[in-house]
Amino acid sequence: MRSHGCAPGSTGSATRSSWSAATACGTSTSTSTTRGSAVEAGVEAGRPHRIRITHFGVGDAHTTAQPPQERTQRAIVAVVPGEGLAGLYAEAGATTVPTRVGEPPASGELVDAIRRAHAREVVLLPNDAELRHTAAAAAAQARTEGVRVALIPTRSAVQGIAALAVHAPDRRFDEDVVAMTSAAGATRYGELAVAERQSWTMAGICQAGDVLGLIDGDVAVIGAEVAPTAASVLDRMLSAGGEMVTLVLGESVPDAVAERLEKHVRDTYLAVDTVVYRGGRQSALMLIGVE
What we know:
Elements: E1 16-24, H1 28-45, E2 47-56, E3 72-81, H2 83-91, E4 95-99, H3 107-117, E5 119-125, H4 132-144, E6 148-151, H5 157-165, H6 173-185, E7 188-194, E8 199-201, E9 204-206, E10 211-215, E11 218-223, H7 226-238, E12 244-250, H8 255-268, E13 273-280, E14 286-290
Parallel strand pairs: 1-2, 3-4, 3-5, 5-6, 12-13
Antiparallel strand pairs: 7-10, 7-14, 8-9, 10-11, 12-14
Helix pairs in contact: 3-4, 5-6, 7-8
């Protein structure tokens, strides 16, 4: 409550003021008492006029809840490793679930993302083979809430990129899911990682600090440096053919490595394009896709 009375230093008459009182809803007795006290306080402070008492009760225009927002028809929800990839997926219209190193998201996080997407139909991209069961549980929960969910079992973020590239929201849902699944399945995926300790692999024994080149989840190459190891992985993947190479660089990989690999592909394989993205923090050392 604010009132305007005599100005400091004035003598004689009180200045006229515009004053209003607002009261919360309650019982009739307490409300009347509150209103009366408020008006009396205004009289003591000056000479109030145009008194207005507003009741903010249930159903008042100030308190009426807004109608629920209309759901969109279709949305993509994707688990993404790395801030750079999260931005890329978001630009394509996807609702993202960022992953943290050593902390895969729980099914509840995926359900929350599906709710945030606020769509009648959702395509879910786990982008990790180990998250398939988690994603399936989240999809099942979302279906109980009336959302139509299709789970595409993408095993890498590069497969998710391929699926997003053919996503067409104006298609029928089933047709869109089939096209996205086909694009993801046609994309072979590789990854570079650094060995944490000595271990047996399908490519032999690795030592701590070695660069490991994985194809479809299995170690295929063991090297000492990132660029030559990545080139060996690319050669193996492109031996079966391909038209497009996707490279997602981790935060520690310099641009010079990408330039070297692009040149290797351009000089060795005809009519194969290379696209490079930055994975940013929390991403793998390098992700490789061939489609």
